[in-house]
Design goal:
Order of helices and strands: HHHHEEHHHHHHHHHHHH
Distance between the termini: 13 Å
Number of strands: 2
Largest sheet: 2 strands, antiparallel
Shape: flat
Radius of gyration: 26 Å
Strand content: under 5%
Helix content: over 70%
Structural class: mainly alpha
Strand order of the largest sheet: 1-2
Number of helices: 16
Length: 364
């Protein structure tokens, strides 16, 4: 990435829109602060727009969650094949389903913004939906977060070496293998691993997140059980994720190898490993870190098929269960968390860009 000139037009536009002359003057002297304020304002608009679209999209799904709740609770609320009007009205008010869709939207945004309240969860009534989500969130972060970090580290290291050693048999094997496997679905690899290590060899468990005979707690037995049960789903994500990072890192590494500064470093007598890590890899570092930061935002979505396959109690499993029972509050909660995490990751990357690349001093 090349250094850019100071964004005079953008700073001037931001300063002109400021509410008072003193603030306009301060913004004109601090272009980075002006950029940060403008970027944060855009982030808020994007967040509001995405949350609004998600709300109306899921509210337009056909179905009656109240009758689903009454059937789930198995109470004597059925009268002449129809639920009591009073009971339905009470639950509609409690779940925020009374009034037209615009009234529901205003009530939902008020509770979400002012109180952080998503309403009760249908799949675990009367537990609040945010509590149900928070119970599943650590499992998703632990499984997908750690797996994503390991896949990125492994992929960048192997991809850099494969690009540095281009033309060799080992580099060709790694590259072709990455091209073939980088787009294979996670669940397909998971099925293969389950068949080999769980059913054929019997070495690892195939389902659940920990041994059912153990009580959750911060002790070695429980932690060891969690690691053992999470090995297969985590390995399926690491294997495929690493191949994708290997391929992209190699593609970034190869064009850099012909640069003059690498020839100069080699002429100075620097060791190849130092040239690779301190010079060549640094130019591949920024785009890979940027892509990794954005990919971390998506871990809150969960890998639905992998979690379903291994019966893992993460956000993916919670989302599927909520969709099956038309639990709008839980569905919107998981979706809103995914939206917030992705947009926040992009915002942080934009604001931290100069720390990742000292050549970048200003933004447009």
């Amino acid at each position: 990435m090349t250094a850019t000139a100071p964004p005079a037009e953008a700073v001037a536009a931001t300063a002109e829109s400021a509410p008072c002359p003193r603030l306009r003057s301060w913004l004109s002297r601090h272009p980075l602060a002006a950029y940060a304020l403008r970027r944060f304002g855009l982030y808020l608009v994007e967040l509001w727009g995405a949350l609004t679209v998600a709300f109306f999209f899921f509210r337009l799904i056909p179905g009656d969650p109240i009758r689903t709740l009454l059937q789930t609770l198995q109470q004597n609320y059925i009268y002449n094949q129809q639920a009591s009007t009073e009971v339905i009205a009470r639950y509609q008010h409690e779940f925020g389903l009374d009034g037209n869709i615009f009234v529901q939207y205003l009530k939902y945004m008020e509770k979400l913004i002012l109180h952080g309240d998503l309403g009760p969860s249908l799949i675990n009534y009367p537990t609040p939906a945010q509590n149900v989500i928070l119970q599943s969130l650590p499992w998703t972060i632990g499984l997908l977060g750690i797996s994503a970090v390991l896949a990125w580290i492994l992929g960048v290291i192997v991809g850099a070496v494969a690009g540095w050693r281009r033309g060799t048999a080992g580099s060709a094997i790694i590259t072709n293998l990455s091209i073939a496997l980088s787009h294979v679905p996670f669940f397909f690899v998971a099925l293969i691993l389950v068949y080999i290590f769980a059913y054929s060899l019997g070495m690892l468990p195939a389902r659940s997140a920990y041994d059912a005979s153990l009580s959750p707690g911060f002790n070695l037995a429980f932690i060891g059980s969690v690691l053992k049960y999470g090995l297969l789903p985590g390995l399926s994500i690491v294997v495929i994720g690493a191949f994708g990072w290997i391929l992209s890192t190699r593609m970034l590494m190869v064009p850099v190898l012909g640069e003059d500064y690498l020839t100069y470093a080699e002429a100075k007598g620097l060791k190849p490993w130092r040239i690779l890590t301190r010079y060549a890899l640094r130019n591949c570092y920024l785009p890979q870190v940027t892509a990794f930061g954005i990919s971390l935002g998506f871990i809150f979505n969960g890998n639905v098929l992998v979690e379903q396959l291994f019966n893992y109690p993460g956000l993916g499993t919670t989302l599927v269960t909520a969709i099956q029972q038309l639990d709008f509050n839980t569905i919107l909660g998981v979706t809103d968390m995914a939206i917030f995490s992705v947009l926040s990751a992009v915002l942080l990357l934009d604001l931290l860009l100069p720390l990742l690349d000292p050549r970048v001093k200003y933004w447009k």
